[in-house]
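Q: For a teaching handout, I want to show students what a protein-ligand complex looks like in token form. Below are the inputs, and the small molecule is dTDP-4-keto-6-deoxyglucose. Please produce the holo structure.
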Amino acid sequence: MKHTTVHDCQIIDIRKYTDSRGYLSVIEGGIDVPFDIKRIYYLYMVPEAARGAHAHKDLKQLLVATSGSVDITLDDGHEKKTFHLDRPWKGLLVVPGLWRDLDNFSGGTVLMCLASEHYEATDYIRDYEEFLKYKGL
Ligand code: T46
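A: Here is the structure, written as tokens, with dTDP-4-keto-6-deoxyglucose included.
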């Protein structure tokens, strides 16, 4: 997954069902996202701080701000692209091999991640120089 770019990532509309009782959104692995979902984690009660600052070698993700808003900047070593998530029916599909920084969390944000793999510390690159080497740059 060394040759992925920020253009391989996109914001998708998550299925939603609406009636007089409100909204219900659904994400099914292999149907609404192009991978089986093996893990779900979420960030919340984030103070005024940035998170992220790493890349994944193999992990595919769908990031959803189920509440609040956040900016996610993806970087493929050549180009950076910032995505703003602020609706529970919008999800950012992130391919492996991209550096990411998360900031501008609004108060009360809950950022949920649907992930293609179980947790594996060796899947992370946490040093930017190492990331550039991984990308062959
Ligand atoms: C990502 C962004 C959006 C675990 O033990 N298991 C897990 O499944 C996860 C995700 C984390 N952890 C532990 C590892 C660290 O000791 O939780 C601690 C905080 O994780 P980290 O510093 O990686 O948190 P973020 O916010 O920088 O990144 C997380 C995810 O790790 C990452 O995959 O894309 O959220």
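A: Two things your students might notice: The chain is about 5% helix and 45% strand. The first strand starts at residue 10 and ends at 13.
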